């Protein structure tokens, strides 16, 4: 009689979760359940979610608000997981659950750890102008993204890539890493390397308000903010009285900005719309007014 395959409990969301679950199901691994999130009606869902793949293969799907209640700890224990795998699951999983599987609990994180621990690592990396991002498979511990590393895969991103473009480039890295390591995980033979805490950085989740433009920053800093939060994310913006100007794209190196200087936030041109920054100017090439009727813009006005 063939040996029973290890029981995998999969915590996941986002398209990274989808592609990793698809890998496990295509291999015929024994995924006993998916724990995921309900789609947020206020969030633009521009990605595939793992619930689609799970339901297509008859894998039970659960969407608890928190798994760290006595009720859900009992339900998870009853599933008798041999291994827990988390991929872009948005909530912390308590240590009592992490201690359940005999083969350990592992997470796929969207950065080259130990840098960019925490939430929204790709957006933060783009905002900081990083030239390289990646995916890291690591052991789950009490602290977020702090466990020993099993494997990583990185990819170069361009200085004009949006966060979505960077996400599309790095997403295949997760499947590559999981494909490389899943057999070792299921055999209890994964090799681990402690993280270098001296290199660790941590960032919290991002809110729409974090897209507010500070014109006292440099053109490069503002441009990186714009590309880090542009569509399908909530976007960068500046308020002009009661109206809000969404800035979906801008250019720092265009004929309209050449040699232009002014006080940060000063409108240097209306057509095209050019605004002064700390060290130059940005041409706002794709914008949208929201809220109150658009104000009358004129050269010299401060945003």
What do we call the CATH topology of the largest domain? Rossmann fold
Question: What is the chain-wise order of helices and strands?
Answer: EHEHEHEHEEHEEHEHEEEEE
Q: Biggest sheet: strands, sense, closure?
A: 7 strands, mixed
Range of strand content: 15-25%
CATH 4th-level superfamily of the largest domain: Formyl transferase, N-terminal domain
Total E-strand runs: 14
- CA-to-CA gap between the ends? 73 Å
Shape: elongated
Question: How confident overall, as mean pLDDT?
Answer: 95
Count of helical stretches: 7
Class inferred from helices and paired strands: alpha/beta
Measured as a percent range, the helix fraction is 25-40%
* Uncertain segments: none
Please state the CA-atom Rg, rounded to the nearest Å: 23 Å
CATH architecture of the largest domain: 3-Layer(aba) Sandwich
Q: Name the strands of the widest sheet in spatial order.
A: 3-2-1-4-5-7-8
CATH class of the largest domain: Alpha Beta
Number of domains: 2
Describe the overall structure.
The chain is an alpha/beta fold. It has 2 domains: 7-203, 3-Layer(aba) Sandwich (Rossmann fold), CATH 3.40.50; 208-291, Formyl transferase, C-terminal domain (Methionyl-tRNA Fmet Formyltransferase, Chain A, domain 2, Roll), CATH 3.10.25.10. It contains 7 helices and 14 strands. The strands form 3 sheets. The chain has a 7-stranded mixed β-sheet with strand order 3-2-1-4-5-7-8. Helix 1 (14-27) runs parallel beside helix 2 and helix 1 (14-27) runs parallel beside helix 6. The longest helix is centred in the middle third of the chain and has 24 residues, at 163-186. The protein is elongated and about 75 Å long.
